[in-house]
Write a structure and sequence with these properties.
By secondary structure, the protein is mainly α. Helix content is 49%, strand content 7%.
């Protein structure tokens, strides 16, 4: 847990140096740190970011995507959000709403399941050879 350097705690600057050194190690030789530890550090960084006032109190943006144009709709809307709100909008969570071909919302409330489906399906589409973003190597 981070210490409060403003309270005159001598560990504040030392903790900051250790954190900076840890970030350098993670950036340049991540395999030197066990996966469980890296995951815990990553989750801690996410929690710290979510506690920041500009992220924690921001409205959760909504992505309205059509299943037939999932990747295209996602890219267009995410770029639009970044253009409007800046890149920090990507640090927060999104509500996902699937719409049909007429623009009407499908039934469902995004309590996590729709977001998971969105992530899985978008990633599946992104690696589809028809888009040419990735190429399959020989042997699979």
């Amino acid at each position: 847990m981070p210490r409060d350097a403003s309270a005159g705690d001598a560990q504040g600057p030392i903790a900051a140096l250790r954190a900076a050194r840890s970030r350098l190690v993670l950036r340049h030789v991540p395999y030197a740190v066990p996966f469980e530890q890296r995951a815990a550090l990553f989750n801690g960084l996410l929690d710290d970011l979510r506690r920041r006032p500009d992220v924690a109190h921001a409205a959760r943006p909504e992505l309205k995507v059509s299943r037939g144009r999932l990747l295209q709709d996602s890219i267009e809307q995410i770029f639009s959000l970044v253009k409007t709100h800046g890149p920090s909008v990507l640090r927060g969570r999104f509500y996902v709403r699937f719409v049909d071909q007429h623009g009407s919302s499908e039934m469902g409330i995004d309590a996590g399941g729709l977001s998971k489906e969105f992530i899985v399906q978008t990633n599946r589409e992104a690696v589809d050879p028809q888009y040419g973003l990735f190429r399959q190597t020989e042997g699979g």
